[in-house]
Structure formats: structure tokens, C-alpha cells
Fold:
Amino acid sequence: MKMVYYLSTAAVLVFGVSAFADGDADNTQPAPVSNLPGVSVTASDPVAFRGLSSGAFLLHREDTNKDLTIKIATSGSAIIGTDYQALPASVTIPAGFYSVGLAVNPLGGASAAPTRAVTLTIQEDPAYDIGRPSKAAVEIKGNVYEDQAPVVAITAPVDNTSLPAHSNLTITADASDSNDQVTKVSFYANDKFLGSSTKSPFSVNWENLPPGSFSLFARAEDQFGKSTLSSAVHITVTNPPPSTAKVVLTAPTAGSSFNPGANITLEAKVTSTTPVKSVSFYSGDKLLGTDDTEPYSFPWNSVAPGHYSLRAKVLGTDGSSASSESVKITVNNALPKVSITTPVDKAQINGPTDVVITADASDADGSVAKVIIYGDGKALGSMTAAPYTVTWPNVAPGKHVIIATAVDSFGAFSSAAATITVTNPLPTVSITSPKDGASVPAGTPIEIAADANDADGLQYLSFWVGDHRLGTDTTSPYSFTASNLEPGTYTLTAHAIDKFGQRGVSAPVKVTVTRP
Structure:
């Protein structure tokens, strides 16, 4: 992994701790700053091209006293090992250097590929303070200049086709791309968008054609957004003669209600002085089926729950057509029932621990297709049969939300939630030196010492004056030396952080720095 170090000769840093007066004290001295170095990251080269060039991050710190290891993490849409070489989990800036550069090397050669991004984020560590910016991003772009546009042509209908008004037309197209993939073909009549198709064979249905002359076009698009418009195919839609027919939807009757998955037979009666070619049955604008012999009917099977508006349309042999009045029906569906049986809502559980979650589910109209159980928004398991049980492993201390979702065979779903608290004692910590109320002459270093304990183990202790962190210590006995405090009264605390990130805070200790 290529890293470049940067040494600054333009400035000399002066170190020390300026004074901070606690909010309750009666002085107005400035706040002390942490003696830890601040670290930040920028994208020094924010764009990398596959097969052409790399990008780069620049990690910077505020001093050069010693080697400093910075923990980092990567995220984003770019995939490690597919879009770029893996970056290390940490980077060390050597003593005497302010910065280190970290190269982002794209993979995949010079082939065209979607633009993706890799984000580098500085992780917390007791050795430094995280400054701003704490994260940066590098884009990895494909060599899109070598990408060829797709080719496309309408294959049906043929040029100069004539159709009667109110008929339906299926428009199809062939589309290909020599070095990429056609992701979408869109269809147009003059400047009217008719619809799009994302799979071959590419087609769209244009229903109830209005009279007029139309130029049909298809536009093919690849995954990089390059597109091509086909040559035009011309059609003419003529007005049919007035219809003398009358059609009535006789079944089902208006207001009918059915169970989910019902088989519903649609029936129509036609009176006409001219020969009838066919009767079509619709739900809204969707064609369900067609019958060309009396008695006109269509079996609509396994109907999903919902509200439907049905109609029948008669087409004469002379091209004339007429539609029935709409009939509204309902296919009912009660939502499935689901509950979380264990753990109970608002349960308190000592942890960290494995939590066994069990749910009950039922459906009055059919069967429960599956039950999905989530912990804090993450799916823990999906079960298609009872018992609906899953184990959530090693749940950390804190509040957590459990959700169980039951889905029936028609896709209807309902959810239940429970909140649990995994308890864990906070670390205990106390300042052993200096004593509360101690007075120290200005210019005298103050050694702050603390005792701390936690059954699960401690990460580190941090020492604070007011709401400003002075420094940290990762090993017992825990201590920190504060120097250069100006006269005033200060409130000291020690914070103990356990391995779960829980924080225990000591009782405050007030110290007065007196004038010489």
C-alpha cells in the first residue's frame, strides 16, 4: 500500500495546557485544550479512474512528537477487492511528520463501469482527538469515454400500419449493446411517453388507441446513461363507425364482496344490430380476458384482496365499440395477527447475553406465509412455520427494539413491537488525588490519580476539567498530570469507559490554583 509522508518546516508548535474555569467558579479564565493531538482527513485526490489513475486520502495531525497510529474504516458503494484494493485498518504517521497520504488504487482495468465511492472515516482512540473533517470520500469512475451507445429498432408494428380507434397495440423492439448491457427501452408515440421495459423482449402495450397519425419511437439506454433513439415507425388510427351495440356487465353485481383468493366469473349481455366480434373484460384499464362467443363470460381466478372496478367492452366486426357501466366489487382480507410472547415488552435482562425471541402469528383468511423477526432494524430470521423463534446473540447493554412481522399468502402484513433493556453495571471510578478543596500554587503541576473497576473490563480512563477532556490513560494505576493552570477554581472528574462504551463518572473534585 503506497503511503506518502509530509514534513512541515513552516511552523513550530508550542504545547501546554491553558486554564479552564469551571462554570460554577468565579473566574473567567480560558478553557484548557486537550494535550492529545487532533487528527483529520481530506481527499487530496478525490477522483480515481479505472485503469488510468489512483485517488488519495491525506491524514493530518497537529504535532510531530512521536509515531501516531490512526485507526480508520472504509465504507461506501465501492466494493473492496472488486472496485479497489483493500486499505489498511490503521495508518501510522512517523515522528517528525505531520501527514501521511493513502492511495486508492482502482481495480477492473480500463473497462467501463459505474461510478462508485469509497469513504474513509477516522475511528475513536484514546491516543488522539478526532478533528474536522473526520471523513472524506474518493470517487472511482469508469473509463466511460470508451463506452458505445446501444442500437435499437422497432420490430412491431411494421411501418404504415393502419388500426381502428379504441383498439390495443403491442409495440416491440430489439435492442443491443456491443460492450455493455441494455438496461431500459422506452417507447413513445410522437412526444407522448407510453412506457418502458427493462427485459428482453422489450415491449409495451398501448391500449384504447385514439384516432390520428402517430410516429412511434423506441429509446434504448445502457447502464452508463448512453442512449439511442430508433428510426420512426408510422401508424394511422382511424375512427370506427358509431356503435349500435349496448353491453351490460351482469355478473358480479355491484357491491359484491368476496373472500381472498376467490374465483369470480365475469358475465356480459350484448344487444346489437351489427355482428359482434368479441367482448373483453377489464379491471380498471387492465385487460382480464376476451370471449368471442355467446354467452360472453370470463373466469377470473385466485383474485387477490383489493377494491376493483370492472367493466365489459364489446367490439363489432365493423370496428365499432362500446363499454358497459363500471361495477365495483371488493375482495376482503383481514390482516394477519402477530404478537411477541418472549421476551415481554419493557423486560430488563442482565447482559450482555443471548436473547431468545418467540412470536405467535395467525391469519383468519388463510395461512401465514412467513414471520420475520428484527432486532434494532436488522433481520434476525425468517420462518415459514411455527414455532417462530430466533436467538439474538450477544446483545449488548442498552435499550433495544424487537419487531415481529407476519406476512400472509396474499402479501398483507402486520407487525408487533417490544422494547427491552439489557442492563450492565456502569464502571465505578473515583479520584484519589488531589483531595476535594485542595489548593495548589500557580505553576505547580497537578497529578490527578484515580481508581476504577468494571466486571467486564475497562477500555480507558479520561480526565476532565469541566467539560473539556485533558487526557487519557489505558493502564492501571490511572493518572494524568495537568500543568500550566492559571489561577482559578477548577472542577475535576474522571470518566471510566468499559468495553461496551458505557461511561462511569467520578464525584467532582474542586481544586484552587492560587496566585504566587
User: Anything to note?
Assistant: Residues 15 and 35 are 8 Å apart (CA to CA). The chain has five domains: 36-145, 151-238, 246-331, 337-423, 428-514.
